[in-house]
Every structure is written in C-alpha cells, then in structure tokens.
Design goal:
Blueprint: H1 2-19, H2 23-35, H3 37-59, H4 62-68, H5 70-96, H6 112-124, H7 128-140, H8 149-171, H9 175-183, H10 185-205
Helix pairs in contact: 1-7, 1-8, 2-3, 2-8, 2-10, 3-6, 3-7, 3-8, 5-6, 5-10
C-alpha cells in the first residue's frame, strides 16, 4: 500500500505532463493527420525513446554532472530551439501552399526510420526534459525508499508515455481526423507553425 501511495503521485504528474499539449504531441498530431497511423507511431516511438533515455540518465545520477556543466545545457537548448524553428518553417511553408487537398500516399511519406530519428531528436534536444525527470524521480524517491521504486518509476512512466503518445498517433490518424485536416489544412499548418515558432523562441530564451 505504501508503495502504491509513493508511485501514484509520480504517475499522475507524468501523465498530466505528457498528455498536455507540447511540441512532441503537436508533432505526432501533424504527422498522423498528414501521413497516417504508422508514420505517427514511428515518430512517437522516437519521442518515447528520448524520454526513456533522459529517465535513465537521471536515474543513474548523470544529470547532476550535466547540470553542473552549464555549457552542455546551453548547447542542447540552442539545438532544440533551432529544431523547433525549423519545424515552424516547414509548417508555415506547407500552410502557404495552395491546392494540396489529399493525404500523402504511402509512396510519398517520409521513411519510418527518419521519422523515428526526428522524434528522438525532438525529445533529446529539450533540456527541460532533464529537469522534468529530475522532478518526477525526486517526487517518488525519498530516504529509505525500496530499491524497486526507481525501476518502477522509470518503467511505469515509460508505459504511460507509450499509452499517451500512441493514443495521439492513433486518434489523429483516423479517417475523421484526415477529413478535417483536408478541409482545414492551411489553417492547421498555420497553427502548427505558430506553436512551433513560439516554442522554439521560448526555448532559446529560456534560462
């Protein structure tokens, strides 16, 4: 019972943070509506891998070294901000195109391996992910905690990440979502451009 009381706030905090709109969720939504279910799941798999990587890093205590080396976080911040601005540019360019009124066919979609790498980079290039995992693990770990708590935190949150990101990929790749995207493509891409642009600038200015 005490183990459950320890883990429940951790899982709830991670679930709320993961399910709330952010660059990763928005990217998965966009790929799902534009290219379909499998490409969106490939992107989601990259995001989940990145999240698990930061979780293991924090769990091993390496995050303390990384946080102490401020230049590393600055470099990650710059890469992440520029990557989000690049995504904003791509969305804005798509929003500016006329006459595109069909979902990309399987022959024209981006390769699954490339989408996986994009999802991985999207999460690895976000220094806030380190701080989020620091907060998550600190919430569940306390003096005298059982040795099993840490793997349960990392493993449980990884499963929740799969559930959340996978649900975004499945939900927004439905035929109904595709029809909405076709009708409002330029507006949706414009919203993505504004969101990614704002997120990129905010990350570059974040201290």
């Amino acid at each position: 019972m005490s183990l459950l009381l320890t883990l429940l706030p951790v899982y709830l905090a991670y679930l709320l943070g993961t399910a709330s709109p952010g660059p990763s969720n928005m990217a998965i939504m966009g790929v799902a509506m534009r290219q379909g279910r499998l490409p969106a799941l490939a992107l989601a798999a990259g995001v989940i891998t990145g999240s698990v990587f930061w979780a293991i890093l924090v769990a091993c205590g390496l995050s303390t070294l990384l946080l102490a080396w401020a230049q590393a976080l600055v470099a990650i911040k710059i890469v992440g901000g520029c990557y989000l601005l690049w995504m904003a540019y791509k969305a804005a360019r798509s929003a500016g195109k006329k006459g595109e009124n069909k979902i990309a066919s399987s022959g024209t979609t981006t390769s699954l391996a490339l989408l996986y790498r994009r999802g991985l980079l999207l999460h690895l290039a976000n220094p806030k992910a380190i701080l989020v995992w620091l907060a998550i693990i600190s919430l569940g770990m306390h003096p005298g905690a059982s040795a099993i708590v840490l793997p349960l935190i990392v493993g449980g949150c990884a499963l929740l990440g799969m559930l959340v990101f996978g649900s975004y990929a499945l939900l927004f790749s439905t035929a109904a979502a595709g029809r909405v995207y076709l009708r409002l493509r330029r507006l949706i891409e414009g919203i993505f451009a504004l969101f990614f642009g704002a997120a990129g600038i905010r990350l570059l200015l974040w201290k």
